[in-house]
Design goal:
heterodimer; A: 289 residues; alpha+beta; 16% strand; B: 160 residues; Protein Transport Mog1p, Chain A; 7-stranded antiparallel beta sheet; 9 strands; 28% helix
């Protein structure tokens, strides 16, 4: 049983030792995974390998464990370098290969992977109508409304139409404030894809171990580790999906500030010498008494 | 203004004659307008949609485009109306006009407003109105219900 535990440690070590450039190194720290996302924190790849060596079979009936341990410590490692991971070569498992993921986001272009976002403050006469018009612009460009509140809304538009959407929305009123931001997530994306590929390789090894377990205790131990690795895989996939979405669809937040109606007799308003023009409109028309 | 024009203008004013005919929507009631009021005719639905026609002195040489831009510019720049559409319309008597559609919110309620300008025919007598302004407006929901009937009324205008 002790050997099985060591083997599992070795596999998990391999998982952690590869592709771990650390999410906290990505630009714009806000997108980093929280520490608790890193469920397995030790040992390093070399430590795991050492342990696997120590766990070498002492008897023929144990040979499958050591074999698996050696394989577990070495097989997933080719993809450990983030740069290699982005190339999408090697690796195993059921998750999408990094190259596929990158291609799905923006076919034909791998670098850089940017998340665009913008915030606009617009002065408008009619906030409700302007919000409706902004939503319509986003829909017309293949985007959608993500949030709508009082005098504010968040739109998501395809990244390729981000600039066009901004310009059209700005035309709806007077631009009082504007900020545009791009966040480079290429490194984080590569790290995650490498981690995912390696985690899936470890899982495959664990599955093989489980199939060959000879007693219940060993099976349970492997199963427990399998559950942890599976959870890690799901987290990594979730994060990748989130990034994919953020890259593919830019976010535009618009806040509308109601503008006061200019007074009819404003000296700044150009006036033609036809007095009746001053009385055109709903106020005179609907005045029935 | 020549003596003849002044006399015709006075005649129009004194007799209260209108130089047009229009068919308001069937479920509208024609209102009595005070003398000297801005409207030659107004009619209202029970739920607050009003149709109004003004006869205006205008300017002899002003084109349809001029009046359309003057009205739209005044409403948009000075009143905060938002233009939602514009289209050509033709009166039953043949005059070409321009319908401008606007929206406007007031006290949290959405309103729709139409202003259609019809320049008088060039052969109109001196002193007669040079421009006809047909307006329609009301709360958005009620207006939408009356929209087809209002369109028919607009097209029924006959300028003498």
């Amino acid at each position: 049983m002790r050997r099985t535990t060591l083997l599992i440690f070795a596999l998990c070590g391999a998982l952690l030792g590869c592709g771990c450039r650390g999410l906290d190194r990505t630009p714009g720290g806000e997108l980093c995974l929280p520490p608790d996302d890193l469920a397995l924190t030790e040992p390093t790849a070399s430590e795991a390998e050492d342990r696997a060596e120590q766990a070498a079979p002492a008897s023929p009936q144990d040979s499958w464990e050591a074999e698996a341990a050696r394989g577990g410590a070495t097989t997933p490692l080719p993809a450990s370098a983030p740069g290699d991971a982005a190339a999408g070569e090697g690796g195993e498992g059921s998750g999408a290969a990094p190259a596929e993921v990158l291609a799905r986001i923006e076919p034909g272009r791998r670098h850089p992977l940017l998340i665009y976002s913008a915030e606009l403050r617009l002065g408008v006469y009619e906030p409700e109508a302007a919000a409706e018009a902004a939503s319509s612009i986003a829909r017309g460009l293949g985007g959608f409304l993500a949030y709508r509140g009082d005098h504010a809304l968040t739109l998501r538009v395809p990244a390729g139409r981000f600039q066009m959407a901004l310009e059209r929305i700005e035309d709806l009123g007077e631009v009082l404030g504007r900020s545009v931001r791009s966040l480079d997530v290429t490194e984080e994306f590569r790290d995650l894809t490498a981690r995912l590929r390696n985690a899936e390789a470890v899982r495959a090894q664990l599955v093989r171990l489980l199939e060959r377990a000879r007693d219940v205790k060993a099976a349970l131990a492997v199963q427990a580790e399998l559950a942890k690795v599976t959870e890690t895989i799901e987290r990594l996939k979730g994060r990748l999906r989130f990034l994919e979405d953020r890259i593919a669809y830019s976010t535009i937040t618009v806040r509308f500030r109601p503008r006061a109606q200019p007074p009819i007799d404003s000296p700044t308003t150009f006036r033609l010498p036809f007095l009746w023009l001053d009385n055109v409109g709903l106020r005179t028309l609907l005045q029935l008494r | 203004m020549t003596l003849r024009a002044a006399a015709l203008a006075a005649l129009f004013a004194l007799t209260g004659c209108t130089g047009f005919v229009i068919d308001p929507p069937e479920d509208f009631v024609v209102l009595e307008e005070p003398d000297g009021g801005p409207f030659a005719l107004r009619a209202s639905s029970a739920d607050g949609v009003v149709l109004g026609v003004r006869e205006l002195p205008g300017a002899e040489n002003a084109s349809l485009t001029f009046w359309a831009r003057a009205v739209a510019g005044r409403l948009e720049t000075a009143r905060g109306y938002r233009r939602t559409g514009e289209e050509a319309v033709r009166a039953e008597s043949g005059e070409e006009g321009r319908l401008l559609a606007f929206s406007r919110s007031e006290g949290g309620e959405e309103f729709t407003y139409w202003a259609a300008v019809f320049p008088a025919p060039p052969a109109a007598p001196l002193g007669a109105p040079r421009l006809y302004l047909v307006e329609a407006g009301g709360p958005k929901a009620a207006f939408e219900a009356a929209r087809p009937a209002l369109k028919r009324s607009l097209r029924s205008l006959r300028i003498d």
